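The records we work with from here on pair a chain with its fold. These numbers are not coordinates but entries in a learned vocabulary of local backbone shapes. To see the layout at work, look at the sequence and tokens printed below:
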Amino acid sequence: MALHMSTIISRTASDILSQLSYIRPALSSHIPLFSISVSPNTKADELSALVSHLTSQSSHGIGCLSASIPSTDPTWQESIACSVALFDKSMATPFRSTIPGINTPQVGRWHSFRKRSEDADDELGDTANINWDDIWSRKLGRGFLPPEIPTQDHEAVGTIVYFSDGAPEGLSNALHTLGSATKVGLIASSTPFVTGRPFTLFHGTSIYSSGAVGLYLASSARPRSYVEFPGLQKLTEPLTVTSSKGNLVHSLDNTNPSRLLLSAIEKSGSASRRVTVRAPDANMKDDQYYLAALRRVGEQYELHQLFTIMSGDPSRGTLALGSDTAPSEGTPVQIYRLPAEFSPDTLARYLVDSKTSAPRKTCNVIFTVSPDVDHRSVPVVINESMETIVLDDVFIAASENGFVVDDRVLGDGGDRPWRCTIRGGLFGLEWDR
């Protein structure tokens, strides 16, 4: 487990630096994992000071720039958040990956302070020799793993935590060869308007715009894992996939899945109007719809993976999912909706926990999906009286780009890593203190 873990939230960088000073002596003798989210009014020199503080004392630190932790309180939109975890060098090893994935255009948010002289970015290697069929069919050889990760003794690797650019597929599929190791990665926040880079990743004193950086932790420190999807509304009872191919679902319970979805939406809309939960003319087409893969826990089903429903064809019956593959035949599934007006409030949960007198018995690394908000269009709310908050024993990092989880993390035995982009979705790793 980590020797120290905390999330610091403040209106000013100086207050965060003051809190970080307490752990500064330990930075050089341990492996730091950190994330920083800046506010619309954070100055370039303030961000530079935070980065320097966390990287100058250790050549092994791993970090990224992240998004604001989801909150319904607009006060927090002006805040800076810094999460830090310190791991023992005997238990943690940092790594850097340049394994290519699928590149997509990136957008950012606001001001740039990038200094060209500080560009330490490595170019990705020649991708012409990569066999993409092998990558997507999960035949990626062990030689593709970052050299810092042991390839002979897979049992020595208990947990891998990493920060990636927007193309994590190559690395996540390579890491899948590590079998039962716990693997989770945060897709770093888009930062063209912050640093001039599409993503901003830190490995020691080097700064990268692409690839991934991370830690592998020894198996003796293996944590428990959990996944949560707040705000989801159930539209159907559990169903069974009876036909699927590629990313298409052709039938559920031997029935047209598109018509099942439309019928569920109509029934839900009628129920909403009866109880006046939503306006009669509410545009449910703006909601997001998901097919959830379930796993059985005792006598009940538990949601453990979400597939975005991209489109449906009532005449042909197919549902197209936003993934490489759909759940296989025989998989129990359920259809869910996320209302357009839902706003996640991840931060509130941990603020409440921090106000209790009882110390936490566990420490948690939490990755969560923040709403994709363009801060350039958000008025800055200045709250001079806002206090600095320190959340002990918890590391929270958010990104509008989501996170990647290996199915076997959740004990399912699934055969593909998957990416969560549902706003408010949360994945946690939990160690006993």
About this structure: Residues 2-100+150-227+343-432 form one domain. The chain has two domains: 2-100+150-227+343-432, 233-271+284-338.
